[in-house]
Amino acid sequence: FDPTITVNNDDLFVGGENAEDDPDLRDRTRGFFLTQARGTEEAIIFGAKTGPSVKRASLLVDEDTGVGTLFVSDRQGNSNAAMVTAVENVLPEWKSFDSIINVVGATLALQAIDISLTLTIGTDQAAIIDLVRQSIVSALNTLNPGDILYLDLIRSAAKDVDRQRVLQCVINTPAANVAPGTNQVIRTTIDLITTS
Q: If we measure between CA atoms, which residue out of 139, 135, 130, 133 comes closest to residue 187?
């Protein structure tokens, strides 16, 4: 190893993953056969996900002009110029001949969450709370750019940890469903999830 060698990346590193998880693999495999007709919204989104590190994508088409905007990000909600360029390069294979689609990297929007849990007597609270936090983070990682964060998603993620022990989940924050900007992808972190 030569310690004098350095590497400088002009773009933020995004999309690094050791492996593709089972739900993403199933969606990608199922999506391939459903998108054989090119130029559909589903085909364009599927095509965008063939770009390196792209895991989440959404398409918004202006009804008046017909111009589409495709928002892309990795699983954590990050994007960079290299990701956008990679999608722009594969997109002609998936869009219709005359369509105009602009590719935009999504912007990460972090959401603080505060919940109150009702647990059965004798439950190891610290262990369940850790699992609930991890479950909520995983659930939000499924949101695409522009997707609304529904309170039911948070509630279900918390209860799905152990329906026998997690009897109730009250969401204190956010107080209502969260609608991001069209270019934003909502995520949270374990540190942003509190229990009160």
A: 139
Per residue in 58-97, pLDDT (tens digit) is: 999 999 999 999 999 999 999 999 999 999 999 998 888 7
Instruction: Please state, as a whole number, how many other Cβ atoms lie within 10 Å of the Cβ of residue 129.
Output: 20
Give tens-digit pLDDT for 114-139.
999 999 999 999 999 999 999 999 99
Q: Ramachandran region of residue 116, left (φ > 0), alpha (ψ -120 to 50) or beta?
A: beta
Task: Report how far residue 129's alpha carbon sits from residue 29's, in angstroms, rounded to the nearest whole number.
Answer: 34
Q: 155 — phi, psi (to 5°)?
A: -60, -45
Estimate to the nearest angstrom the gap between the alpha carbon of 167 and the chain centroid.
Answer: 28
Q: How many CB atoms lie within 10 A of CB 71?
A: 27
